[in-house]
Design brief:
The protein is α/β, with parallel strands linked by helices and 493 residues long. The protein is built from 16 helices and 18 strands. Strands 5-4-1-8-9-10-11-12-13 form a nine-stranded mixed β-sheet, with helices on both faces. Strands 16-15-14-17-18 form a five-stranded parallel β-sheet. A hairpin with a 4-residue loop joins strand 12 and strand 13. The radius of gyration is 25 Å and the shape is globular.
Length: 493
């Protein structure tokens, strides 16, 4: 029954949901560079900038998570009528997030966090912000915006508080009054230790550290310790549920009536849900809005967080990825998706790189996967944090190997590779070389097997480094095929 309910939620209900997010929207800007010397002007490193990236942050990142689940998303908050505000508006438009609730004010600055990274290591963070609480006029406009949406029909409201001035007690009282009037589920990711201003919300989602700060002592990350502390919260403040994210221990939900649900981490590899807080918030509010049980909502939230922290980093997952994961879980598999488009894989690579991870790329036909292939991919994977594979299409293999090849079609080859533990993504390319694919993916390291020189490797201009690995002697797909032919001719097969 749970399986069918989650299936319906993922396949049908998510695109029908209308969710409002109110809170502190911001822009996260990453400045990447190379550091090779100390400045002659002062004892500081010189960072030669190579790339600048901007992504949605704060409440806007929660909205991004919801938008990538195919929900209709409305974002409310304040920002500056400045260049960062223009950037925020553009990023929101790119993700089809309705920003009619963002008040772009000439008297404010758009909150922007700029992270300076040299050689993929964070050197400094610069914060452009002001934390003045919203004034009476701004509060009235935000409340009017939310009231209008609620009257038109909302399925859920997210309160995303980063302490930048939007989520004042007065604003939150109005938000909860609107939610109560229209019977709309609300969820809040708390900031600070004054949780009384969130009173009346359906869900509050602290992690163990935030829970400890609220109750005033170090909460042990045990079932009993978390349940006891959550009970103290419910005695002090009126919530329907306390949802505690517990890193490798998964998620625990404690209800006001004393009911308790524990859901252990579903990811078989490394799992750390604290890196996926926005994902958990998005999944819990959408699951509640769609009428899923708490148990089913926990299944979905833990599965989604498992993708984010072990396979996608902080990348906002797409509904298609959740569908693939759910199908995999039901069929006893662990890999979310056997093959990605070039752009899908490039998006994943950008996210991994933004988190300081080194992405390794190699390519090949991988027609009949043998021990030499496995050793080669294992050695390549050890050169970085993520390994992605460029796989020759069937047409490409025929041009390179002859009409009798490939033995296995491209989809079967992609699925075999994607199910290997060391492989984080596979993309098929139609050309004879991976140069065009590399121009889109732009990984950090390109690995080639054989007797090449690094400057001879095609596509090297699209990566930071080219490395050559020797092939293992005694392994060859052609050799395997010839051996099979010989055995057939000898009548042994």
């Amino acid at each position: 029954m749970v399986s069918r309910t989650i299936n319906e939620f993922l396949r049908t209900r998510l695109p029908q949901l209308r969710i409002a997010v109110i809170g502190d929207a911001m822009v996260d800007r990453y400045v990447f560079g190379d550091v090779s010397r100390i400045s002659p002007e002062a004892p500081v490193p010189v960072n030669r900038v190579t790339e600048i990236r901007e992504v949605l942050g704060g409440a806007a990142n929660v909205a991004s998570n919801l938008a990538n689940l195919d929900c209709r998303v409305f974002l409310g908050g304040v920002a500056g009528d400045d260049t960062h505000g223009e950037l925020l508006a553009r990023l929101l438009a790119d993700q089809r997030i309705d920003d009619s609730g963002i008040l772009y004010e000439g008297t404010r600055r758009t909150t922007t966090k700029m992270r300076i990274l040299g050689a993929r290591q964070q050197m400094m963070r610069l914060d452009f912000e002001e934390t003045d609480p919203v004034n009476d006029r701004e509060q009235a406009r935000l409340v009017q915006w939310l009231s209008r949406l609620a009257g038109e029909g909302l399925d859920g409201i997210v309160i995303s508080d980063y302490g930048k001035g939007v989520c004042t007690p007065a604003v939150l009282a109005q938000v909860n009054a609107i939610a109560e009037k229209y019977n709309i589920a609300t969820i809040v990711d708390p900031k600070g230790t004054d949780w009384s201003k969130y009173e009346g919300s359906t869900f509050i989602t602290p992690n163990v550290k935030e829970l400890s700060e609220y109750v005033g002592y170090a909460v042990p990350n045990t079932d009993e310790g978390v349940v006891t502390a959550a009970g103290e919260v419910l005695k002090a403040v009126a919530f329907d549920y306390v949802v505690v994210t517990r890193s490798a221990k998964g998620i625990t939900v404690v209800a006001a009536d004393g009911s308790v649900w524990h859901n252990p981490a579903t990811q078989q590899d490394v799992f750390d849900v604290s890196g996926a807080g926005d994902t958990v918030v998005a999944m819990m509010i959408t699951a509640a809005a769609a009428g899923l049980s708490i148990r089913a909502a926990l299944h979905v939230a833990n599965g989604a967080a498992g993708i984010v922290v072990s396979k996608v980093g902080t990348y906002p997952i797409h509904r298609s990825e959740l569908l693939s994961l759910w199908d995999s879980i039901r069929h006893g598999k662990t890999n979310p998706k056997p093959c990605y488009t070039a752009q899908e894989l490039a998006d994943r690579i950008r996210t991994w790189q933004a988190n300081g991870e080194t992405v390794v790329f190699t390519n090949g036909c991988f027609d009949i996967v043998h021990g030499g292939h496995l050793a080669y991919m294992r050695d390549a994977a050890r050169l970085g944090d993520r390994l992605v594979i460029g796989l020759n299409s069937d047409a490409s293999v025929k041009r390179l190997k002859g009409d009798a090849r490939p033995i296995n079609n491209e989809q079967d080859r992609a699925e075999m590779l994607s199910n290997l533990a060391m492989v984080d993504g596979v993309a098929i390319f139609e050309e004879d070389t991976p140069a065009e694919l590399l121009s889109i993916l732009r990984p950090n390291i390109l690995v080639k097997g054989g007797d090449y020189k690094p400057d001879e490797v095609i596509g090297g201009e699209f990566v930071d480094k080219v490395l050559i690995l020797p092939f293992r002697e005694g392994y060859s797909t052609t050799g395997i095929i010839e051996r099979i032919k010989q055995l057939v001719q000898e009548g042994k097969l």
